[in-house]
Amino acid sequence: MSAETMSVFSPQLSSRFDALTEKYPVKRSALVPMLLYAQDEIGYLSDAAIREIADRLSLTELDVRNVASYYSMLRFKPAGKFNVQVCTNISCMLRGAYEVYERFQHELGIGHKGVTKDGVFSLEEVECIGACCWAPAIQVNYDFHDELTPDHVPGIVAGYRGQANGKAGR
Amino acid sequence: MPRLVSHPDEVKIVTRRFGMGAAEIDKYIELGGYESAKKCLAQGPEWIITEMKASNLRGRGGAGFPTGLKWSFVPKQSAKPKYVLVNGDESEPGTCKDHLIFLHDPHAVIEGTIIAGLAIGAKTGFIYLRGEYRYLLEIMEKAVADAYAKGFLGKNIFGSDTEFQVITQTGAGAYEVGEESALMESLEGKRGVPRIKPPFPAVVGLYGGPTVINNAETIATVPHVIAMGAAAYAAVGSERNGGTRLFGLSGHVARPGVYELPMGYNLKKMIYEVGGGVRGGRKLKAVVPGGSSTPVLLPEEIENLGMDFDQVGKAGSMLGSGGVVVIDDQTCIVEFALRTISFYQHESCGWCIPCREGTDWLKKSLTRFHAGFGTEKDIDNIRYLAENMMGRTFCPLGDAAAMPTLGFVKKFRKEFEDHLNGKPCPFAKHVEMAVV
């Protein structure tokens, strides 16, 4: 595909998508990874991103939206630069996940699916993230933090805030 | 970084290479890696399937179906290409074993996939990881690239005439995709809703071709079975339950972690000796033996319970994914049941009405109950709802939501009754307002 100049994605992601669409026996199999990687770059699935992915896979926009709306990691609105996902499922709950979650709410001043005014953080209560034996656990974007207590929260927030101040852009 | 744990009772087969840097291909080879695949290539499909049957290895995803038998169902001749699909969409609450396999031993997954491919005559294998496991996907992708570079994957694997390709895939957040037919839908770029069976995937699977779908732990076990021999592997476990299992101890246990123990290992011993007992010296109230969808067991039910598929089944629950969740006496079972059903309500894909509506109503009922607005009749209604979900859906998610709920209501009815008539919950701090 020679859409690179027109693409809403970076040249790197564009060529990655070119490779992805060749990778599978059926092109459409690239859809879910493409949606996730597009979101990683742009921060959410914008109308333009959905349009381009549909074009690249010869699908309708409706098809793409229909699939995207199924997966809980995909979103149609921007989240914070650092999306804090606190697991409160059973294994984490038993070891104090709600206390950790409440501390994040307090530190960030936002609730479930909220975004801080400066756009640096968003917060989500999520289902099991596969870290049950190291509970309670969270993910900030894709990074795991495990065996937490509420007292770890300010340090985690400060660490990511430092990163946000250090370099701009996603 | 997930902490590795150890206990003298462990029999390290699948976890043998954990913590040894085996994610690097040269280290993996140094530790005997890829020898099993070479052996299988020399021996051929009949031999592999015979070995796998003799090993008594049963599916580690939860259903416990014999792996060798599953492979033997794939037709020898097929007009459409055959596929191997590795299920690493690990999402069952209480379960994090595949997390460690991908982290510490990604080549075991690749080698197992090659062997499965040789057994059924497939030229392509897919390794699907849940979307949250991005750092593990990157580890897997590097491992796959390294295996290609060595010539272990590609047109002529290990210098032979046999072709085998491996493709990694990411999900994007969906428990339901762990169900095998929904997994195929997702891999085909669709919503992860289940397909009706029959036809079974072994006959009509991915892209319409015969497909073997195995859990990541099952696949990672395969090279070890070949290396040590089926008889030796089977001898480690209990009757009809070959080998070891990666048990994930979590919740109120003193030393949580993933432990590799022989099939049939006593559950009480697992909690009190391997896991160091209940945290803070408290008393045990209940155990969820195999991930959140398995019915709860009481302390008196685990005394002589061996952890294998048959014994746990006989005790009225399931071995499931091997995620053992320990619950202490300071826990509100109604809250625990509510958190469990909230998960299933969130994850129900909405395809089948009994599951979509059932999980929703169960959540509403339990929310109201926990907030102190339940009535005596609600307890029976919860049972009635759950019983009517059982067996009435395309995939097992409906059952997975109904079974634990029934277990909680049957075994802890008294605790449900204690929540009647506006009485505040004796334990919980987190009482959501009932919006019904």
Question: Topology, pairings included?
Answer:
The complex is a heterodimer of chains A (170) and B (436).
Chain A: H1 11-23, H2 31-42, H3 47-56, H4 61-68, E1 82-87, H5 90-94, H6 97-108, E2 121-126, E3 138-140, E4 143-145, H7 153-166
Parallel strand pairs in A: 1-2
Antiparallel strand pairs in A: 1-3, 3-4
Helix pairs in contact in A: 3-4
Chain B: H1 25-30, H2 35-43, H3 45-55, H4 67-72, E1 83-88, H5 97-104, H6 106-120, E2 124-129, H7 134-149, E3 165-170, H8 180-187, E4 211-215, H9 216-228, H10 230-236, E5 244-251, E6 257-262, E7 265-266, H11 267-274, E8 284-288, E9 306-307, H12 309-314, E10 323-328, H13 333-347, H14 353-370, H15 376-389, H16 397-411, H17 413-417
Parallel strand pairs in B: 1-2, 1-4, 2-3, 5-10
Antiparallel strand pairs in B: 5-6, 7-9, 8-10
**Count of alpha and pi helical runs of chain B:** 17
The termini of chain A sit apart by 26 Å
Oligomer type: heterodimer
* Proportion of residues in β-strands of chain A: 5-15%
What is the overall shape of chain A?
A: elongated
Tell me the greatest interface.
Answer: A-B, 43 and 60 residues
Taken in chain order, the helices and strands of chain B follow as HHHHEHHEHEHEHHEEEHEEHEHHHHH
Task: Describe the 3D structure.
- The complex is a heterodimer of chains A (170) and B (436).
- Chain A has 170 residues and is α+β, with helices and mostly antiparallel strands.
- Chain A has 2 domains: 11-68, Arc Repressor Mutant, subunit A (Orthogonal Bundle); 82-166, Glutaredoxin.
- Chain A is built from 7 helices and 4 strands.
- In chain A, strands 2-1-3-4 form a 4-stranded mixed beta sheet, with helices on one face.
- In chain A, helix 3 packs across helix 4 (61-68).
- The radius of gyration of chain A is 18 Å and the shape is elongated.
- Chain A starts with 10 loop residues before the first helix and ends with a helix.
- By secondary structure, chain B is an alpha/beta fold.
- Chain B has 3 domains: 25-236, Rossmann fold; 244-328, Roll (Ubiquitin-like (UB roll)), CATH 3.10.20.600; 333-417, Up-down Bundle (de novo design (two linked rop proteins)), CATH 1.20.1440.
- Chain B is built from 17 helices and 10 strands.
- In chain B, the strands form 3 sheets. A 4-stranded parallel beta sheet of chain B has the order 3-2-1-4, sandwiched between helices.
- In chain B, a hairpin with a 5-residue loop joins strand 5 and strand 6 (257-262).
- The longest helix of chain B has 18 residues, at 353-370.
- Chain B starts with 24 loop residues before the first helix and ends in a 19-residue tail after the last helix.
- The interface between A and B is large, with 43 and 60 residues.
